[in-house]
Amino acid sequence: MASVLDNKRVAFVTGATSGLGLAISRSLLDIGYIVYGAGRRQQPPDLPQDFIYVPTDVALDESVNKSRDFVLSQESHIDLLVCAAGFGISGSIEDTSIDLAKAQFDVNFFGTARVVCAFLPSMRQHGRGRIIIVGSIAGKIGMPFQAYYSASKFALEGFVESLRYEVRRFNIEACIVEPGDFKTGFTGSRQKIMTPESPYYDQFERVIGVQEHDEINGLDPAKAGKKIAGLAVSKHLPTRLTIGPFFERFAVWIRRLIPDAWFEVFYRMYYRL
Questions:
Q1: Domain residue ranges of the chain, discontinuous segments joined by +
Q2: Active site includes 201?
Q3: What is the CATH number of domain 10-270?
């Protein structure tokens, strides 16, 4: 059944019930999108009528495909796909089990891949569309004691670069957004894998203290929502866009210019390693 609001643009946003995903959804609603918001949490309260909550677990093929089928049964197509679902684990590489590392990738990386693959056939048939993947500055600079989170975001960088080449002929654009620190519930929901018995414990406590301070004092997520909604209606999508506090954006820029050894010295000093 086609939407009675065929003149409106349609977006499917994962991770839409909290954090950046929710901020993106709100901003898309503000500029006239119908938003199908996917998430595992309870539907956020006080959202406008054009937000349609779709319970979705991006780690499960069946759940993703069911959500796609529901959206496409209501709309003739989607114009925009935003993949913002993700979570974080922290701890030393040595102390993190491979099962936990796989779970990190199953949501952050493979969850994104599942959603993209689910919606691409419809976007190809429609003959246009935009895909925005929410990565992280941690996908540009490896974070101490967040190795598997960083690795999952690094993987998205290559995924998006490859995707852009493949879908260009179908008039589909793709972009990765690399947020720095924003004040969301991400800090409180991070899973910490560390015990006082670990040889890394004291170092971990110092580093995570700095990281959480930066997160708690980060920017308003509404700013990220508006920036990403702006990408949705821009003339063309860039390959990537770094957003967040100036110091963090500067770190990403300077990382490309100075030798690795110099940057490692700077990072060790910043995190007191």
A1: 10-270
A2: no
A3: 3.40.50.720
